[in-house]
Amino acid sequence: MDIKNLGHIGFNVSDWDAAIKFYCEGLGFKRIYTVTFADLYRQMLSDMEAGTAAFDVNEAVLNTFRGMGDTPWHSYLQIVPGQCLELFYNYNDKPLAGDLSGKCCYSHCAIIVDDLEKAWEELEEKGIKADTQIQIGPDFTKQFWLSDPDGNKLELMEYTDKSFQMVKTIWE
């Protein structure tokens, strides 16, 4: 197996507009595309009729998707070329992420920037408040933390010349 890169991380979101605003306007991600439930319904129906459905879908699921109409099902937001965040609309009222510390599950997503202080200032100008101050982490990266509207944790980080991720000898 020859792994090339991390493709995307997916989040369920409860407030579509707030999530899009946070990630696109706040962090500067670019929306590549959105699939609505109507799109999903048409594709699943077509696949079922053609006998090419990837998985079994019953009539109740199809009716749910049809009833959701143009509500977003998911969007891909480009972080940088080839790396994305995938957002899924939380139509099942799943519990929000909230504080997941101490649980075996998703912990956080780290986003690397060239200038952490500049990123901090830009986010403050856009009304996005960080959860922590800028600090040096235990791996010697400069970092601060923030949460999206659903409580998903994000770490913004800048490598230093001492960052474990950049110092080869730490792994030898």
How would you characterize the overall build of this protein?
It contains 4 helices and 8 strands; from the N terminus they run βαβααβββαβββ. It is 26% helix and 27% strand. The model has no long low-confidence stretch (mean pLDDT 85). Strand 3 (72-80) and strand 4 (83-89) form a beta hairpin. Helix 2 runs antiparallel to helix 3. It starts with 7 loop residues before the first strand and ends in a 14-residue tail after the last strand. The protein has 2 domains: 1-94, no CATH class; 96-172, 2,3-Dihydroxybiphenyl 1,2-Dioxygenase, domain 1, CATH 3.10.180.10.
Number of strands: 8
The SSE order reads: EHEHHEEEHEEE
* Model regions low in confidence, pLDDT < 50 over at least 5 residues: none
Task: Specify the biggest β-sheet.
Answer: 4 strands, mixed
Number of domains: 2
What number is the mean pLDDT? 85
Q: How are strands sequenced across the largest beta sheet? A: 1-4-3-2
Kindly provide the radius of gyration, computed on alpha-carbon positions and rounded to a whole number of angstroms: 19 Å
Percent range for β-strand residues:
25-35%
Overall helicity: 25-40%
Q: How do the helices and strands line up, and which of them pair or pack?
A:
Elements: E1 8-13, H1 16-26, E2 30-36, H2 37-50, H3 59-68, E3 72-80, E4 83-89, E5 109-112, H4 116-125, E6 135-136, E7 142-147, E8 153-158
Parallel strand pairs: 1-4, 5-8
Antiparallel strand pairs: 2-3, 3-4, 6-7, 7-8
Helix pairs in contact: 2-3
